[in-house]
């Protein structure tokens, strides 16, 4: 591992010197009894008079993140999973030989210490070290916090360094875990069953997206990484599991941006004997519950804008949203030629072969979606852009569906489920560009799902929520890469 970097070479020499002196630079025999948080919580407010009476000795371990050397004594800060604490090491207390070994330690090394708490003259709670042990020798110097790791791409490529020198990044992922815990608790309390469905599927289904393709050698068949778990979760409702959910990894072979990662996390849940309107109520309650738990408030700031999660949230149809934000009359939305002309004026490149429903979807995304800042349910989507949704009883050209938008981006998609197998097969065939109920499309038409519906699926509603985008909101970050530990990046040349 010899390198031209003199700092790396110096640390390797220190490591070898430690070995020669019988010190294992990668020891694994130190027992930790307390975290930094444990010590700070218990003793932060106590003065030295109280602290001097403590007979117990405490064992902590962590990474050295700062050093102030005064010759015969040294102040350090170590950081563990819970935070950081100052420690004080004196030559006369740990012994000359041990102090000589300690002097070979560097910022970045992991150490274990045993000692007692006291307060310095500046009132900082500190551990007076009585013994210290090297646990891991760091062979590369850490980047300096304010000057070393500021390049965004480097932060994502070397997330381990990002987590070391930018502890606020750790908090994002602690918060992410907390959000997922709150979702689980909320659904479990309402008798939903958490399940797991296949991530490798013979037919990509449940959403419209380009899949990743792979090959199974033993089975001698192509498989796809799932783009959604939807069709498998609905098979479970056919089987009698009336309320199910999965927090799942999905894969879509599409673009990468501040809002998109090819591998992402979704919550999908399905409830029998419910409609999309029931799920609007449930979604309000669930997300408001998360906000209340995180902030003790239903109002919080996202990117310099205050969001208000107080129910009830606004509900508006897709056409109403276009008319309001696009300043266009309803007559234009029902006329394909007028809509194309209007869309082109807004800068859209629209294909004349598109259906009216697809045109409406593109226009909505352009003129309305960016303006939906406060939580807003958009309903009444066109049937031809919703192949798995139940048709509206009063207007079969629309479906019983909503999408939830917050801060100008889609957070959730839900609908009353289509459980008519004949209608479902027709829509599948239309979606893949074929016509006729008897046409068999190998590898594209999920005949087993149609067969499952023929056995009968109860009336139901289902929803998908993008976990990554949800965490972006609650962590107040603008890029999806900030909430994914290892986002996908193009390989450096």
Describe the structure.
With 493 residues, the protein is α+β, with helices and mostly antiparallel strands. It folds into 2 domains: 6-142, Nucleic acid-binding proteins (OB fold (Dihydrolipoamide Acetyltransferase, E2P)); 165-313 and 374-419 and 457-482, Bira Bifunctional Protein, Domain 2 (BirA Bifunctional Protein, domain 2), CATH 3.30.930. The protein is 34% helix and 25% strand. The chain has 17 helices and 18 strands. Strands 6-10-11-18-17-16-15-14 form an 8-stranded mixed sheet, sandwiched between helices. Strands 1-2-3-5-4 form a 5-stranded mixed beta barrel. Strand 4 and strand 5 form a beta hairpin. Helix 11 crosses helix 14 (356-367). The chain is elongated, with a radius of gyration of 29 Å. The two termini are 22 Å apart. 30% of the residues are buried.
**Could you tell me how far the N terminus lies from the C terminus, measured between alpha carbons in angstroms?**
22 Å
How is the biggest beta sheet arranged? Answer: 8 strands, mixed
Helix content: 25-40%
Percent in strands: 25-35%
Blueprint of the fold:
Elements: H1 6-20, H2 36-43, H3 48-51, E1 58-69, E2 73-80, E3 83-90, H4 91-94, H5 96-102, E4 110-119, E5 125-136, H6 152-157, H7 159-165, H8 167-189, E6 193-194, E7 200-201, E8 213-216, E9 221-225, H9 230-238, E10 243-251, E11 263-272, H10 276-295, E12 299-302, E13 305-308, E14 314-317, H11 318-326, H12 330-333, H13 336-345, H14 356-367, E15 376-382, E16 398-406, E17 409-416, H15 421-431, H16 447-455, E18 460-466, H17 467-475
Parallel strand pairs: 3-5, 6-10, 14-15
Antiparallel strand pairs: 1-2, 1-4, 2-3, 4-5, 7-9, 8-9, 10-11, 11-18, 12-13, 15-16, 16-17, 17-18
């Amino acid at each position: 591992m010899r390198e031209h970097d003199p700092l790396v070479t110096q640390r390797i020499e220190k490591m070898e010197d430690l070995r020669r002196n019988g010190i294992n630079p990668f020891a694994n025999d130190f027992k930790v009894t307390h975290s930094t948080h444990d010590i700070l919580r218990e003793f932060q407010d106590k003065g030295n008079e109280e602290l001097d009476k403590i007979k117990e000795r405490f064992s902590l371990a962590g990474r050295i993140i700062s050093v102030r050397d005064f010759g015969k004594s040294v102040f350090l800060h170590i950081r563990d999973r819970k935070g950081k604490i100052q420690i004080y090491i004196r030559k006369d207390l740990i012994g000359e030989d041990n102090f000589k070994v300690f002097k070979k330690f560097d910022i970045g090394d992991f150490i274990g210490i045993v000692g007692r708490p006291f307060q310095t003259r500046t009132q900082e709670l500190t551990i007076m070290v009585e013994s210290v042990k090297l646990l891991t020798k760091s062979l590369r110097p850490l980047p300096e916090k304010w000057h070393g790791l500021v390049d965004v791409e480097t932060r994502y490529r070397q997330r381990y360094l990002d987590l070391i020198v930018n502890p606020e990044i750790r908090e994002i992922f602690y918060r992410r875990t907390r959000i997922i815990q709150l979702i689980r608790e909320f659904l479990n309390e309402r008798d939903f069953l958490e399940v797991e469905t296949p991530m490798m599927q013979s037919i990509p289904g449940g959403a419209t997206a380009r899949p990743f393709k792979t090959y199974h050698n033993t089975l001698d068949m192509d498989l796809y990484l799932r783009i959604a778990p939807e069709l498998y979760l609905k098979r479970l409702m056919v089987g009698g599991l009336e309320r199910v959910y999965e927090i799942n990894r999905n894969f879509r072979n599409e673009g990468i941006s501040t809002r998109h990662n090819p591998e992402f996390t979704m919550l999908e849940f399905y409830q029998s004997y419910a409609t999309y309107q029931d799920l609007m109520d449930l979604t309000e309650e669930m997300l408001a519950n998360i906000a209340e738990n995180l902030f003790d408030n239903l109002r919080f700031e996202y990117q310099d804008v205050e969001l208000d999660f107080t129910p009830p949230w606004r509900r508006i149809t897709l056409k109403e949203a276009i008319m309001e934000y696009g300043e266009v009359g309803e007559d234009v939305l029902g006329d394909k030629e007028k809509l194309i002309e209007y869309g082109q004026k807004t800068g859209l490149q629209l294909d004349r072969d598109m259906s009216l429903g697809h045109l409406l979807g593109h226009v909505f995304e352009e003129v309305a979606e960016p303006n939906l800042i406060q939580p807003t349910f958009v309903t009444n989507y066109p049937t031809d852009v919703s192949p798995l949704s139940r048709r509206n009883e009063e207007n079969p050209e629309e479906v019983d569906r909503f999408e939830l938008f917050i801060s100008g981006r889609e957070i959730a998609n839900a609908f009353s489920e289509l459980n008519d197998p004949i209608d479902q097969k027709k829509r599948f065939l239309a979606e893949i560009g074929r016509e006729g109920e008897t046409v068999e499309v190998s590898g594209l038409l999920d005949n087993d799902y149609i067969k499952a519906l023929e056995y009968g699926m109860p009336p139901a509603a289902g929803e998908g929520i993008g976990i990554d985008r949800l965490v972006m909101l609650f962590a107040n970050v603008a890029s999806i890469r900030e909430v994914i530990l290892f986002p996908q990046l193009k390989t450096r040349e």
